[in-house]
Amino acid sequence: MMSESQELRRKLIEAKRLILDGFVEQGIELLSKTISPENIKESNWIICNIIDTANCDAVVKTLDSIGKIFDISPCANIKRVVYCYALMNKMSEYVDLALDVIVKANKKDSLDKLYNDLKNEKINPEFLLKIGTAYKKLNAVRESNEVLRKACENGVKEACENIKEIASKIM
Description:
Elements: H1 4-20, H2 24-34, H3 40-43, H4 45-53, H5 56-66, H6 79-87, H7 93-104, H8 108-118, H9 125-137, H10 141-153, H11 157-170
């Protein structure tokens, strides 16, 4: 007979497999049936696993439908949350949350990698504003200006104002 935690693990892995194989709704349904307030602590790893391995469409669908039950802040590859939402051109509280985690952890390298990965993609310039603002919070002025300038050139007024503000502080 399987222990409760082995059974939980089996169901979580099955749900992940469904999501990875393109049966996203079924995977999400299994996760929402399996995870409870009593086992969320030992189940939380599955969301990091999905963020890491699923395609962006599946990551966004999963977070949009059941992300609230998880804590995504410990996920090692949290920048992928921003990347996926940017690729799917969808704003979300998870984008802000992920960027906050990166800033709080002082992971400028993660931000560099994220920006680099998105540089050649057609993304909504609002995402550039968010990334530029995260750079600003990390006191990475040069990077912040570069990203905000790009957002400004793409029509994000708020980004233009932020560049001026930085420029006036330097002078």
